Amino acid sequence: MYLEHFRLKEEPFSIAPDPSFLYLSEGHREALAHLQYGFSHGGFVMITGEVGTGKTTLLRNLVKQTPEDLEVAFVLNPRLTVKELLETVCDELGIPYDPSENQSIKQYIDRLNEHLLATHRSGRSTVLIIDEAQNLSPAVLEQIRLLTNLETDNRKLLRIILLGQPELGELLARNELRQLAQRITARYHLGALSKEDSIAYICHRLSKAGGNPQLFTPAAMQRLYRISRGIPRLINVIADRSMLGTYVQGDVKVQAATVSYAAREVLGEPQQRWTWIAGGAIGVTSVLLLGAYLFDSPDTETTQPASATISGTIQRPAADTPPQQPAAQPASPGPQPAVQNPSPAVPVQVEVKRPAGTPFLIQRSAYSAVFARWGVNYTNTVNADIPCNFAPSAGLQCLARKGGWSDIDRLNLPVVLELWDDQPEPYYGAIVASADNRYRLNLGGEERWITPRELRDSWFGSFVVVWQTPPRYPGNLRSGDRHPTVEWLREQMIHLTALPLESNQSQRFGKDLEEAVVLFQEQEGLLADGIVGPETWIRIHQRLRLPGPALLS
Questions:
Q1: How far apart are CA 108 and CA 424, in angstroms?
Q2: Please, are residues 541 and 468 in contact by the beta-carbon 8 Å criterion?
Q3: What is the pLDDT of residues 498-542, one digit of tens each?
Q4: Is beta strand 125-130 parallel, antiparallel or unpaired with respect to 159-164?
Q5: What is the pLDDT of residues 169-188, one digit of tens each?
Q6: What pTM, to 2 d.p., does this model score?
Q7: Deepest in the core among 36, 331, 366, 404, taking most CB within 10 A?
């Protein structure tokens, strides 16, 4: 739509992994070198990186330069059984097989071995590439390990490259997969782009598309880096939407404000939509949606109805505290502070097992333990409300996340873990306290101290944190919003940032308050987008030292 307006030959920020647009940062050069090593040597090579960092684009760039003496088999959908994996490899290499159900695993392996030997005799090599490998089951990973046993006296017949998200490394750390982990001959983790590389990346893609590399103002590029955190895929989607907004406005340069509006739209935030009126374009005021918007993770979900509004007050400690809440603010009892965490007993190896009961009741038992740490009684029965629908009645919210123990430590709040065993449904446990790198796990109503190692084979990063909302919680707040909670937020930002904020429009979220929020987010290592979402609310609560439970007392 905007190509002619900006005099471009093609879209500069398509999310398709087009090798011709590849930008090689230092990290990408290193990852590419590891991939090239995997193409020329036997054994395993593993490349990990967060979603959208460019792993697949690197791979396609390398495959585009594949030498004629190399056969490449791609597995792009790794959610396969062992048999389906072997069928996919045979399909990729053009190996005929009997598709009937009577075909055994051994018969597939024999056919594959015959093909690899024939390829070897002809002076050629074979590479198997598995993308999104963090989704492979342990059984399939073990079969992949066994494929590397196909060899001659002096050479491996199959080279294997695994690409995946950081969870792949955690998966391979499991005890039953140690033999596979020991066979990895090279591994590399691809990180996000630095600010300098992000700006160079934007200019590079604009130039490759035949456009002006300075199409984004310096402030717009800085804002784009800050919001995207240097993730190339996020840079692409936000930059593309920013150019569309700029085109609709009739401008020739992308401004920082347009990047902010575009980011809110593509990240699922209440948005500024551009609409045509009388031959021009105006911005429609962004809508303040009520409820918790969990905007920066694909695994998050909101559990509070959009129409719900919570009215309550957060009690403050008597000592070095910020100014008191305005007298006009109606008060209602909030969650009570929890008791101090008991110290763990002498370390004893604990075997974590699924407790008795249905998954439904096990989950409710875990949430009941977390609510109890907030001083809230939640009935653990079949007829009880869904836990995260119940939470707002106690001035609380649920926030789903995927991460590691360091993320839980940083939040420093009780959480519910999603745990797995060999059954098809997960079960749940609550982490209610921590001390000396050990965690108090409530499982089926029984508590014991465990170490991260003891949950290594059961927990793969999914958890829900329960957090306390501010007075009259409206959901996310951003510049331009008007709401009574803005007045409370303004008081806290004055206390936490020491910035001289204006107070004549105390219920309006103005630019001065946005600057204070950005400063606070930068100081706390959060995404500095000026939007007050769940993680910012949580950090404000912690910095004010308001009553409530903490994992580490």
A1: 27
A2: yes
A3: 887 765 667 888 888 888 898 888 888 778 888 888 889 898 988
A4: parallel
A5: 888 888 778 888 888 888 88
A6: 0.48
A7: 366
